[in-house]
Write a sequence for this structure.
């Protein structure tokens, strides 16, 4: 039966644990002997802290159990890939395609009889699809150290290769469980990042794959008719949830960041630091639609942070303006990304599933259309014909 395989893997798992613990004990003994050569041995047994001894032993066991568990998970996942790859390459190619499809069901019955329900027809087809979607065994071998078979089952139905790799990388980067992965997929994280990316030009100083649009802040529990202060307070109260939505690498630095210039005080709503990009990220919260004068305000914040807060080993600060509604035509016209500024909507209430998917699809379609127009006019010929009457100057901004 299939459970015999699991039993053998568990035995191998336990053996690895035992070996690893023995290795750890040998290393500890060597360290102790080394210390005893230079330090006299205490004769007082009461000097041993039993609590510390127990906690350290637990740390060793848990660490080795996790590694052994990862090894067993990897072997099971690779087994599924090899089974699927074999069936796909030998039985379902060329002239054997139709014949192969007919006997897969029979093969499934035979495997179930010998190894258990895990090889039922539905799962066997998943294994074939798994090998087809991820044909490179090296990639599978790498991913399987951190993605379980359950992770792969969630990823397989996704439409594009980019989408599949995005979520696989998200699991690896943020160590997401299956439930968290399912949550990210249902909330269209990939599509929302693509929407944000389409707003960036080749000359953008805002890095790709950092922001999303829109941000879903329904988990903050905001009621109707909330104020900007309420939104800021809710973000700080539910900071972990906000950062999970915001993305990997963000660390909170400060709220209501005070900036003084020429005797005047200005206040930035939220300041984060991105550990991967090594740069400060200014976040400004706005109620209502995006207004062009917000550009001047954020430019001032970024210049001030660049001059007075940026460290020697850091990159230039970037900023994001979060609005209830993003005026995407105005945002494209102003070319804020060249100034290191991104703009995104935030939704504090999530529509019903069908409506949510429709809205995201519509926004993504419009974003792709704007991107195609930019490709047709790469040098900004259209922009030169438009009056920039509403664009703020360098020294003009509104403090709200």
């Amino acid at each position: 039966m299939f459970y015999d395989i699991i039993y053998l893997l568990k035995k191998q798992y336990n053996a690895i644990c035992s070996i690893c613990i023995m290795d750890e004990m040998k290393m500890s003994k060597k360290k102790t002997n080394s210390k005893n050569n230079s330090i006299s041995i205490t004769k007082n047994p009461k000097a041993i802290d039993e609590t510390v001894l127990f906690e350290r032993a637990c740390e060793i066991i848990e660490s080795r159990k996790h590694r052994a568990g990862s090894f067993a998970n990897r072997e099971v996942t690779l087994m599924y890939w090899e089974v699927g790859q074999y069936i796909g390459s030998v039985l379902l190619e060329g002239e054997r395609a139709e014949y192969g499809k007919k006997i897969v069901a029979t093969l499934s019955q035979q495997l179930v009889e010998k190894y258990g329900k895990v090889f039922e027809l539905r799962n066997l087809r998943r294994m074939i699809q798994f090998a087809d979607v991820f044909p490179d065994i090296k990639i599978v071998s790498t991913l399987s150290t951190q993605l379980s078979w359950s992770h792969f089952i969630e990823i397989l139905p996704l439409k594009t290769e980019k989408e599949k790799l995005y979520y696989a990388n998200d699991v690896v980067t943020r160590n997401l469980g299956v439930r968290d992965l399912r949550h990210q997929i249902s909330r269209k994280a990939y599509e929302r990042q693509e929407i944000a990316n389409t707003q960036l030009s080749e000359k953008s100083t805002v890095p790709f794959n950092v922001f999303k649009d829109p941000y879903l802040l329904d988990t903050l529990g905001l009621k109707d008719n909330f104020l900007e202060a309420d939104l800021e307070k809710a973000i700080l109260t539910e900071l972990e949830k906000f950062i999970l939505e915001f993305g990997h690498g963000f660390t909170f630095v400060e709220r209501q960041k005070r900036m003084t210039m020429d005797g005047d005080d200005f206040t930035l709503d939220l300041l984060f630091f991105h550990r991967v990009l090594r740069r400060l990220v200014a976040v400004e919260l706005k109620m209502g639609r995006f207004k062009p004068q917000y550009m001047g305000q954020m430019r001032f914040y970024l210049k001030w942070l660049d001059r007075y807060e940026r460290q020697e080993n850091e990159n230039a600060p970037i900023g994001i303006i979060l609005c209830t509604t993003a005026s995407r035509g105005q945002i494209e016209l102003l070319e804020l990304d060249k100034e290191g500024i991104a703009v995104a909507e935030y939704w504090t209430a999530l529509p019903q599933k069908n409506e949510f998917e429709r809205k995201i699809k519509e926004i993504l379609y419009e974003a792709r259309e704007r991107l195609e127009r930019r490709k047709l006019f790469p040098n900004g010929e259209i922009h030169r014909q438009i009056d920039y009457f509403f664009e703020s100057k360098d020294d003009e901004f509104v403090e709200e």
User: Anything to note?
Assistant: The longest helix spans residues 50-91. The chain has two domains: 2-39+46-145, 191-384. Strands lie at 215-216, 250-261, 264-274, 279-285, 318-323, 341-347.
